[in-house]
Amino acid sequence: MIFSKFSSEKFARNLRRYPAQFRQRLSSYRFYAYLAILGPGIIAANAGNDASGIATYSSVGAGFGYSLLWIFVPMTLSLIVVQEMCVRMGVVTGKGLADLIREQFGVRWTALVMLALLVANTGVIISEFVGIAQASELFGITRFITIPVTSLAIWWLVVKGTQKRVEQVFLAMSLVFFCYVVSAFLAKPDWAQVGGEIIRPTFSLNAAYLFTIMALIGTTITPFMQVYVQSSVVEKGLGKEDYQLARADVIVGTIFACLIAAFIVICTAATLNVRGVTELDSAATAAEALAPVAGVYAKYLFSVGLFGAAMLAMGVLPLATAYSLSEALGFEKGLAHSFREAPIFLGIFTSLIVVGATVALIPGIPQIKLLLVTQTINGLLLPIILIAIVSLVNNREIMGEYKNSFLFNCLAWTITIVVSCLSLLLIGTTIVDNF
């Protein structure tokens, strides 16, 4: 990608030297270069809008209306900063996050972090299968058909497909999130009020209000996203010359994912909050509740979005886990390898699919309790991951001139401290509420 070698400023200066027709052609080449690199940032950010994320956003809209939309602005900025650091480490070092943690912090810390990541991700994978089951049952299709079929489809795609094919399918799955945009417009919200709540932050010391903000942040910035985006960039073979375009991919993907989350809040606020429906136990419940107000089409669009979101996360989460464990243990990894070449990597992926599908088939699986446990583990793990990321990206030995600038570092450490404190506070609140 020769055009990605230029910074955006240098590129703009160089363009002015050439005739308009040539400048237009050069710009189109740059656009195609971006399309070639497109993928890791968009997929990682959208995978965060999984079944549990959709349930959280729906609960926010139902319980608080539009009043928490402002929080998506700082959340979007925070996720861009964190994802950008991981992408930068990937293109500069050519190594995944778990690889760097093992090399810089030792095997014991790595083993502890990877064990926590394995347990947390397994719980979330099960919840994704439950989300698929709930979405399909809204269309009258039993989970005993959809779970085996979807799990086999995802397994076949990853194990038998190429890295390029897997990425293309994951990107195509991301398009299903537009269902939430349509659902929001069908709900006919007060757009003037929506705009006002976005630009005019409101704050409350109410315990439920604070808990909801913490849950939103915990849902949006999760450890598996950082692991996946860095490993994905490395496997794609992106180098320093691709940094500018890879960073653009992160920014575009994060903004898109956070806009979709905001549309989910808008949709449920306009339909459920106004009717006094403030408590939801799943995203499927939110879809059912939409029908009396926004119509049956909104219900089915919401359900299609839930199904697609759970499918995407069901593929990304096991992959992120397989990447991290294989990197930490020093085993061969990558979608280009067969079972014979990378048995541990593909074995971990296969095992997680089997466990997730099997447990989700158990009738009456307590999804909310399962999510509380995994949220608690992720909440403990997130500060460790964030501190490791900022520490690694500031290591001149491995990053050289690509280490954080002073101003970027101030922003990164502020985000790390705030998000870590909120995560730990969320855990404490959850434990107190349960006991």
Quick take:
By secondary structure, the protein is an all-alpha fold. The protein has 20 helices and no strands. Residues about 1-10 and about 25-30 have low confidence and may be disordered.
SSE order and pairing:
Elements: H1 8-15, H2 20-37, H3 40-47, H4 51-64, H5 72-93, H6 97-105, H7 107-138, H8 143-160, H9 163-174, H10 178-186, H11 191-199, H12 207-220, H13 223-235, H14 243-271, H15 283-294, H16 296-329, H17 343-360, H18 367-393, H19 396-399, H20 406-434
Task: Describe what you observe in this structure.
The protein has 20 helices and no strands. It is an all-alpha fold and 435 residues long. The chain has a single domain (38-434), classed as Amino acid/polyamine transporter I, CATH 1.20.1740.10. α3 runs antiparallel to α13 (223-235). The longest helix is centred in the C-terminal third of the chain and has 34 residues, at 296-329. It is globular.
